[in-house]
Structures are given as structure tokens and as C-alpha cells.
Amino acid sequence: MCRWLAYTGEPLQPSTLVLDAQHSVVAMSLNSPLGAETVNGDGFGLGWYPADAALPQHPAVFRSIEPAWHDQNLREISRAVRSPLFFAHVRAAAGPPIQQTNCHPFRFDRWLFMHNGGIAQFGLIRRDLMLAVDPSLYPHIQGTTDSEVLFHLGLTYGLADDPIAAVGAAIRRVEEVGHAAGVQFPMQGTFAVSDGETLWAFRYSSQGRSRTLFHSADVPTLRAMYPDASRLDAFGDHAQVVVSEPLNDLPGVFLEVPESTVAVLDPDGFRHAAFLDS
């Protein structure tokens, strides 16, 4: 399907993780050992919250249908920008066409959203899901992906008030409609959503066999584990990364997010909570 990364912490150049890491997002676009597809070359996106803006703020988004490894503008922007919270996504199209409006992340107001996975037999149930989107939000759907519809379902069900409950309600709606149409396992994926202050990362599938998802251990612990690892010098004490696949091969740096779990990352650190596990 796709691969993605989200960062929160002290302001950082996205290129540090998108380009320069041992197994960066651009490297994943060419070789994704843990992904459903090895190559993710059907476009990419970068979304970021400006470092000098007061919260709550509106994110900026750059998306392209070029392969991430081939796009010079991505290199320029990711080195010029500094952000305390950013998303990066590389796409392997699984049906919807390769067009800019189908590239992640998706944005509405102060929210960013991205997804790896899919809604099974989306064409069969797309109409019913679209009709469940609040009429005031419907005009903001620009592309044709299941991911964008899922995002707007989350907005419909109260993302601004309770992101965990809203994403859960959106997924349950997908499962309800899917099951009614005879789809055995309607939902698959990992999801990231943020309002610019907190990052929520979900791992869930109807079958209980979700795409891979990891997040970093806290930086002070990592410095104690690896006092000679100069690569850690780029990060502040509050830096946290969520990613589809580990960015390096150092043991203990990345922790797997369990099945049916949401990881909540904010300035206080990270915590896990059960998500749609019953």
C-alpha cells in the first residue's frame, strides 16, 4: 500500500528523517521490506506545521505525483523548512488513480491525516460511505481515495472534540457498511492524525492483521543506551517519531505499536491505549 512517517518535538528539518536517515522515507519508497509493496513510487506528500506560528495553526502541504526519490522540490523544501510536527507519506496506488489530490497527507482546517492500508472493495461501498459524510464537509473531498473519505468521516463524527472516538466511529461505520455488502474484512491500516499539538497514531484492521507501525523510544533513554551515537545529536529531548518501518537498525530505538492500539504522542511523551479491541 504505502509508507509514512510522522514527527513531533523540537523544530526539525524534515530532511533529517525524510532524506538522511539510514532507512528514510525516500529509501522506503524504493525498498520497503516490511510493506505490502516493495516500491512506493506513485506520488508523495509532506505536511508540516510552521515552527514560528502560534497554536492552533494551519499546516502547509506539498504533494506531487512524482516518485519521492525523483523529486528535487521535495529535497529543497524538506531542507528549507523547520517544523515541530510534520507528516511524510509515499504512495503505492491500489486502485484510485495517480493524481495530486489522491496523495497524502490530507488537510482540513488545522488537521492533517494520512493512512496506509485500504477499505476492501471500496468501489462497492463508496456511495454509502460518501452519503455518511456531513453535507458541509462533502465539498472539501477533492480526490477519489478511500483514505480521504475515511478522514472526512472522522471529521463528521467529531474529530475536533475527541479524535480517538471519532476515528473509531469512522472505522465502525466502514465495517458496518462493508459487512452489510458482504465484505468480510472491510478495514485495514495504520492512520496518523494531528491538530498541530498532539499526534495520534492508530494501528487497526478488521482481520486483526494490520500493517506495521513503530514509534521511537524517548531520546534521553536512547542517549543512555547509545552514548556514542552521533545521529542522536540532531534531536531534542522531546523528539518522537512514528513510522511504518524502523529508520535504522539500532536495537531498542523503535518500539512496535501493538495491534488494535492508538499511540498518543505529545510534549509529555507517549502512551498507548486500546483501540476498537472488542
Provide the fold topology.
Layout: E1 2-12, H1 15-18, H2 25-30, E2 44-49, E3 60-64, H3 72-80, E4 83-91, E5 106-108, E6 111-119, H4 122-131, H5 146-156, H6 163-180, E7 187-194, E8 199-205, E9 214-216, H7 219-225, E10 240-243, E11 254-256, E12 261-266, E13 269-274
Helix pairs in contact: 4-5, 4-6, 5-6
Question: How would you portray this structure in words?
Answer:
This protein starts with a strand and ends with a strand. It contains seven helices and 13 strands. The radius of gyration is 18 Å and the shape is globular. It has a single domain (2-116, 188-274), classed as 4-Layer Sandwich (Glutamine Phosphoribosylpyrophosphate, subunit 1, domain 1), CATH 3.60.20. The mean pLDDT is 91. The chain has helices at residues 15-18, 25-30, 72-80, 122-131, 146-156, 163-180, 219-225; strands spanning 2-12, 44-49, 60-64, 83-91, 106-108, 111-119, 187-194, 199-205, 214-216, 240-243, 254-256, 261-266, 269-274.
| Helix percent band | 10-25%
What is the CATH H-level superfamily?
Aminohydrolase, N-terminal nucleophile (Ntn) domain
What's the number of extended β-strand segments?
13
Distance between the termini: 26 Å
**Strand content of the residues, in percent?**
25-35%
The side-by-side strand order for the widest beta sheet comes to: 3-2-4-1-10-9-11
**Largest sheet composition:** 7 strands, antiparallel
Radius of gyration of CA atoms, rounded to a whole number: 18 Å
Broad shape: globular
Mean pLDDT, to the nearest integer, reads 91
- How do the helices and strands follow one another from N- to C-terminus? EHHEEHEEEHHHEEEHEEEE
Determine and state the CATH class.
Alpha Beta
* Number of helical segments with 4 or more residues: 7
Spans of at least 5 consecutive residues whose pLDDT stays below 50 are none
Count of discrete structural domains: 1
